[in-house]
Specification:
Helix content: 25-40%
Strand order of the largest sheet: 3-2-1-4-5-10-11
Bound molecules: 6-O-phosphono-beta-D-fructofuranose
Shape: elongated
Distance between the termini: 59 Å
Order of helices and strands: EHEHEHEHEHEHEHEHEHEEHH
Largest sheet: 7 strands, mixed
Length: 342
């Protein structure tokens, strides 16, 4: 088979491990040949390709980012974009396309599949917000980076008796904040799933310090919102899939807490550091398993599907399922951990 591969959306630790696994198994076991499309869907519109074979994939396993490049290009928003993608697949004699991405990239893959293109999807995102899979690779790495940062903030916060607000990514899901906040022993975790009352947060921090505790870490997810719209963040740019650029709530929360508590309050925004660098061993293994299953699906002719982790098994689910529902943090998770937040 001739297989096209692309990585779309934001980059994510583990993408290279997927590419390596797909190519290794495809070439060695099936005699497949590959073409890499650069910069996500943009490569399929502007004819940006790179060769892809076992040699090209040597040494990429521990590397963050993606050797194929990524972009948030949305062919559905470009006039004639979908037709251009189809024509480009034909031009490069592609039998099947493996699209590696989040809900946006997979949404386009789903549309192409409905129009007869042979596609297999692989889910990725540090946000862990795809409902069709238990976990996405990249999440584990982002959580570890955020946890390491919180550990470091603890020692400086304790030295100065300060409050530190640490803003993490995750878009409209609080998974990174929850995991890193719990692992890092945060005093407060603010997530989009549970709007927070800033006066109550300030009161809890004051109470904590009145009991003799030094320093508090407040982890805030970039998509967290205050009740009743009491704290607002200036709106950012909107991408080609209609997502607003998030960020800034950390500073707003820090200012509000300093004003209400009188404690010296500083803010750290982790931003893209959470996506950069080498993937954890867990993410390398999950990404590798996804890649192996994806090329398997190509040869089973299971088109229009996406690989997913269910329990400890890699399964195939319809692509349509991947893009229907956002997986968010359930109320039980935060409530169960409530004993740490008072
Ligand atoms: O979806 C992954 C993610 O890192 C989100 O957590 C974040 O909101 C967004 O991408 C940032 O996107 P960009 O890299 O385009 O700024």
């Amino acid at each position: 088979m001739r297989v096209g591969v692309l990585t779309g959306g934001g980059d994510c630790p583990g993408l290279n491990a997927v590419i390596r696994a797909v190519v290794r198994k495809g070439e060695v076991e099936h005699g497949d040949t590959f073409v890499g499309f650069r910069d996500g869907w943009k490569g399929l519109i502007d004819d940006l390709t790179r060769p892809l074979d076992v040699e090209q994939c040597r040494g990429i396993l521990p590397k963050g980012g993606t050797i194929l490049g990524a972009s948030r290009t949305n062919p559905s928003k470009i006039e004639g974009g979908i037709e251009a993608v189809k024509a480009m697949l034909k031009k490069h004699d592609v039998d099947v396309l493996i699209a590696i991405g989040g809900d946006d990239t997979l949404g386009v893959a789903h549309r192409l599949s409905q129009e007869g293109v042979r596609v297999v999807g692989v889910p990725k995102t540090i946000d862990n917000d795809l409902s069709a899979t238990d976990v996405t690779f990249g999440f584990h790495t982002a959580v570890q980076i955020a946890t390491d940062a919180i550990d470091r903030l603890h020692t400086t916060a304790e030295s100065h008796d300060r409050v530190f607000v640490c803003e993490v990514m995750g878009r409209h899901a609080g998974w990174i904040a929850m995991y890193a906040g719990i692992a890092g022993g945060a005093a407060e975790i603010l997530i989009p799933e549970k709007p927070f009352d800033i006066d109550e947060v300030a009161a809890r921090i004051k109470q904590r310090h009145s009991k003799g505790r030094y320093a508090s870490i407040v982890v805030v997810a970039e998509g967290a919102v205050a009740t009743g719209g009491t704290l607002s963040v200036a709106g950012g740019k909107v991408d080609a899939f209609g997502h607003p650029q998030l960020g800034g709530i950390g500073q707003v929360v820090a200012d509000a807490l300093e004003e209400r508590t009188g404690y010296d309050t500083r803010v750290t925004v982790l931003g893209h550091i959470q996506r950069g660098g080498t993937p954890t061993a867990y993410d390398r293994v999950l990404a590798t398993r996804f890649g192996l299953r994806a090329i398997g699906a190509v040869h089973e002719k299971a088109f229009g599907t996406m690989v997913a982790l269910k329990g400890d098994v890699i399964v195939l689910v319809p692509l349509g399922q991947a893009v229907t529902e956002l997986k968010t943090v359930g109320p039980g998770f935060l409530d169960d951990a409530a004993v740490f937040f008072s």
